[in-house]
Amino acid sequence: MAGLVVLILSAGAGVFVVGHYGPQLNPWELIVPVVLFGLGLGLGLGSSSLMLIAISGAHPADAGAASGLATQWALALGAVLFAAALLLCLLLSKPPARARSQPDYVRRGGERRDAERRCLGRLRLTRE
């Protein structure tokens, strides 16, 4: 039980650190959440893992089958959640803007160069 509490604290610490520092986050600022996460895993795996909880009601003769069933359910659930997240990202993303035809670029070559300069300026890159 102590491992679960420390894992929840590490998740909260991670959310706080990422929310506080934002995009300027330095990897070393995540040291406390990562150490808490490792401590929580160490405490949790030694005393009560999710698999032990899942097969706790099975008879000793059926422990192997129960473990396999719990593992298959976990794998199937992970695959379904990953597919749902991927589908959601694809459905909510904007379609790409329609590309211009080649003659349009040839006629307005300066417009393309200006667009490239603006894009490079946003990324703060310089062309050599």
Low-confidence stretches: none
Terminal CA distance reads 59 Å
Work out the helicity level.
over 70%
**Proportion of beta-strand residues:** under 5%
How many E strands? 0
> What's the overall average pLDDT, rounded?
76
Order of helices and strands: HHHHHH
Structural class by sheet pairing and helices: mainly alpha
Let me know the largest β-sheet.
none
Radius of gyration: 26 Å
Globally, the shape reads flat
Helical stretch tally: 6
3D architecture notes:
The chain is 72% helix and 0% strand. With 128 residues, it is mostly helical.
Q: How would you summarize this macromolecular structure in one to three sentences?
A:
The chain is an all-alpha fold and 128 residues long. Helices cover 72% and strands 0% of the residues.
Task: Please name the defining characteristics of this protein.
mainly alpha; 6 helices; about 0% strand
Sequence-ordered SSE layout with sheet pairings:
Elements: H1 2-21, H2 31-47, H3 50-54, H4 63-92, H5 102-107, H6 109-122
